[in-house]
């Protein structure tokens, strides 16, 4: 199955270059997590009702901004390493500001498309499933899965251009859509595999006490795996569908 080939190729891309993956993403990712943890309880002050609201809002905004910049930085650096063999010899990869900015703009456009499609699908699927199965936990999970898979498939088709943006190529959103034309079923299968594996990765966290050291460590490790494999899937899609590389 081609979808499975794409997925396993992306996983090998990360763990076959594990040391490089850590050098490119490790420090940035850890700083992201430290900021999130440090600002998680910001603004808590007994007897003050205004300060917690302002503090929490500021902390959430700053953490979100740090996460966004860090994620884009990692993605662009990883695409360039895999596709152009751009070396990485320090703990912090080069910051390609212009390419990161262009990557963000394209990602934002794709995100808006995903939000519109996701809302429409969730409304339709939710109405059908909940009317048939009632408001149960299973029905809710089924709605999420049935909505997530097609939305993720659409996102992957458009996002196939993003690694090219990281390389400085002039590509439009429709370039990714056209390049993956005819492989819609493969994209759906890939989305289902990713959604299922994400669910599996989340299961260990259910057995751990929320907020505990083991829980935080597991979140960091599993989160890193999801980020790197997700970025690698886009790299694989670009390499295969746009650069016409074989899946080996």
Core attributes:
mainly alpha, 79% helix
How would you portray this structure in words?
Keywords: Membrane, Transmembrane, Transmembrane helix. The chain has 248 residues and is mainly α. The protein has nine helices and no strands. Helix 4 packs antiparallel against helix 5, helix 5 packs across helix 8 and helix 8 packs antiparallel against helix 9. The radius of gyration is 20 Å and the shape is globular. It starts with a helix and ends in a 6-residue tail after the last helix. About 4% of the residues have low confidence.
Spell the H/E element sequence.
Answer: HHHHHHHHH
Q: Work out the number of β strands.
A: 0
Q: What percentage of the residues does DSSP assign to strands (E)?
A: under 5%
Helicity, as a percent range: over 70%
- What number is the mean pLDDT? 88
What's the alpha carbon Rg, rounded to whole Å?
A: 20 Å
What's the topology here?
Layout: H1 2-15, H2 18-40, H3 50-84, H4 97-133, H5 137-159, H6 162-166, H7 173-179, H8 184-206, H9 213-242
Helix pairs in contact: 1-8, 1-9, 2-3, 3-4, 3-9, 4-5, 5-7, 5-8, 8-9
Compact description:
The chain contains 9 helices and no strands.
